[in-house]
UniProtKB/TrEMBL annotation, chains A, B:
Record PANTHER family: CYTOKINE-LIKE NUCLEAR FACTOR N-PAC, OXIDOREDUCTASE GLYR1-RELATED
Domain of life: Bacteria
Keywords, alphabetical: NAD, Oxidoreductase
MF-aspect GO terms: NAD binding; NADP binding; oxidoreductase activity
Domain 3-hydroxyisobutyrate dehydrogenase-like NAD-binding stretches: 165-283
One Pfam family, short name: NAD_binding_2
Catalytic-site annotation from UniProt: K171
Signal peptide start-end: none
Protein name in the entry: 3-hydroxyisobutyrate dehydrogenase
Domain annotation 6-phosphogluconate dehydrogenase NADP-binding: ranges: 4-155
Length: 292, 292
């Protein structure tokens, strides 16, 4: 295999994804705003470019893993999408709003390219272990082309149809559920702790039984210890995601009181200068409130 | 094996537990307020008594699976506990407040009996399948006697020390987390649905991946379909549990905003006359709010 892929965005998630693709035999041309982050990939054989548009080949494939809606819209300028052009496919893995995906999809259509939303559920170590999962949506023909590329580094790909925004909706719903699980454990473990039960012992019972799922087992360890380092996903990005969730819900007339609560926890965590901690530090709010 | 056990309370959970004990070879004397519910057990060889106290043998073992604090306090009168007397052990499996457990424990101590809190996490079908889990707390010596009895019909027994209220705290925390999971799915699935994604498809992805735990897989099916029948656990009992959770939390100065939200969902579900549905019907609140 020697297919070429343009790869934009080498953050906490982008880097291990790019590495996996190189290991799988793809020829990568990478771009990142902070160019120094590309160095480890250069050693693996990736070509580095100074401007995102220089990575693009007309009719080729580009994967983007960028921070938020604004960055995706900035990088995927008319000029860049025009260069991607006829037959080109953009695999957009960033967690952005479904509305942005739908707008970008129209712009891609205009230039004969195809936009596929493919956000990934995975922390960096899950990408390395190949156990992440992707929600995908967009035009059927392009999805069939990109699925084999994605299959190399995830466990499952779940198809949500042709609406390019659909996969983003699923990703936002899932991130909301993860954040809600953190708050839930924060409240439950703190109630137990203040009743003389160790956070560790209730964590162990519940995550070995009713809540024996990765989210509770892995994040629960952090909540049990109230230790939220190292940072795998920034608090500010957690707030961004829950804001997108609430906006998407509001656009469809769906009140989400639990998501409102989570949003306030993120805001409070940032107010307490916890932006140097992992997003799961939102669970510390319950301890703070209880004077624990 | 032909040990005798007094068994009080043949509700949705009590009945399959009693059946499991009979099948395991125990000689059961059963009592239930509505005597007709004991009939199926009579056929299996259980002896039925008209008054709870008549089931008690001095120095013996009694298991109770009753509806709430008030019923447990009513049935476990001074007179009954006195009859249980020296060497007697009460395995209290009801979901009641830790405070009630602590008070009852003192009364048992007074008469030389021992109170063990052993609430079970299981829906009726889980008892039949032997996959429930028990949180246990109370005096060590009595726990060693009762564990072999309980092991016959559950998967795991988790020991939370000598405080007779501890196991109840864990049970309340766990029930809160289940209820919060229901609300979480209600909000997430409704947001997806109103964005053109089927509730079934998002349910499938999330419960096969990040949330691959029994709570999400089993209850998620009900939430995906917005169908909350048959009743395995009554809505009114769900409200009772969350009220106990909030009281226990408040007694220990622990604010639980997510539990507050759940409480209001239960109240609203009862206001909407859903008391003929399973407690998981609380998840329908998100759909109602969205006019779905």
């Amino acid at each position: 295999m020697s297919e070429k892929i343009a790869f934009l965005g080498l953050g906490n998630l982008g880097t291990p994804i790019a590495e996996s693709l190189i290991n799988a035999g793809y020829e990568l041309t990478v771009w990142n705003r902070t160019a120094s982050k590309a160095e480890p990939l250069t050693k693996l054989g990736a070509k580095v470019v100074e401007n995102a548009i220089d990575a693009i080949e007309t009719g080729g494939i580009v994967i983007s893993v960028l921070a938020d809606d604004a960055v995706v819209e900035e990088i995927f300028s008319m000029e860049l999408v025009e260069k991607l052009g006829k037959g080109g496919i953009h695999i957009s893995m960033s967690t952005i709003s479904p509305e942005t995906s739908r707008q970008l999809s129209q712009i891609h259509d205009w230039y004969g390219a195809t936009y596929i939303a493919a956000p990934i559920f995975a922390r960096p170590e899950a990408v390395v272990a190949g156990v992440g999962n992707i929600a995908i949506s967009g035009k059927a023909a392009a999805k069939e082309i990109v699925k084999p590329i994605l299959q190399g580094f995830v466990k499952g790909i779940y198809d949500f149809g042709e609406d390019p925004g659909a996969a983003n909706v699923v990703k936002l719903a899932g991130n909301f559920m993860i954040a809600a699980s953190l708050e839930m454990m924060g409240e439950a473990f703190t109630m137990a702790e203040k009743n003389g039960i160790s956070r560790q012992s209730i964590y162990e019972m519940l995550t070995q039984t009713l809540f024996a799922a990765p989210i509770f087992q892995n994040y629960g360890k952090l909540v049990a210890n109230n230790v939220y380092e190292p940072v795998a996903f920034k608090l500010a990005l957690g707030l961004k995601d829950i804001n997108l969730t609430l906006q998407t819900a509001s656009d469809a007339n769906v009140p989400m009181p639990m998501a409102d609560l989570i949003r306030n926890r993120f805001i409070s965590a940032l107010a307490k200068k916890r932006d140097n901690l992992d997003w799961s530090a939102l669970a510390q709010g319950a301890s703070d409130d209880a004077g624990a």
